[in-house]
């Protein structure tokens, strides 16, 4: 199991997850931009991704439809604001259940000896929404997909 370290800086209002993955940055990048891979890992434990659409280009859209353990379906969607291959994905993030709250995701990848450092930042409009996300299990909702990603990376060629 991969260790995920969290930080909640005062500014910007973000929850930042950092993990060292035992895979080259090329694999980590591919697992983030190919829908068939994202479908396998980008969800908390017990959740299933029913649909994944990704156009990982600047201005391109993304959308994920998930099911929770009770079978309820809901979606997340956004647009890519910045894409630097093998280094950075930055996008808007909107939950279907809370369309009035638009957040941002910033995913940074840095090659290291023996793997990749992955830094995932979920950036919120204010402290209220960031702390609310944390209190509703936000750390687990970020940790579990990263752990699923690490398991997937071990199987990728």
Automatic annotation (TrEMBL):
Belongs to the AHA1 family. Residues 22-126 form the Activator of Hsp90 ATPase homologue 1/2-like C-terminal domain. This is SRPBCC domain-containing protein. Pfam families: AHSA1. It comes from Demequina lignilytica.
């Amino acid at each position: 199991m991969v260790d995920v370290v969290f930080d909640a800086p005062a500014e910007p209002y973000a929850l930042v997850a950092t993990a060292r993955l035992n895979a080259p940055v090329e694999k980590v990048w591919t697992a983030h931009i190919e829908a068939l891979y994202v479908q396998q890992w980008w969800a908390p434990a017990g959740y299933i991704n029913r649909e994944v659409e990704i156009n990982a280009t600047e201005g391109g859209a993304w959308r994920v439809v998930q099911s929770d353990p009770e079978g309820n379906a809901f979606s997340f969607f956004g647009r890519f604001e910045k894409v630097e291959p093998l280094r950075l994905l930055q996008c808007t993030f909107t939950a279907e259940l809370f369309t009035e709250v638009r957040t941002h995701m910033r995913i940074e990848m840095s090659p290291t000896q023996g793997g990749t450092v992955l830094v995932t930042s979920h950036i919120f409009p204010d402290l209220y929404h960031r702390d609310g996300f944390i209190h509703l299990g936000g750390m687990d909702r970020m940790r579990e997909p990263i752990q699923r990603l690490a398991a997937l990376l071990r199987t990728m060629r």
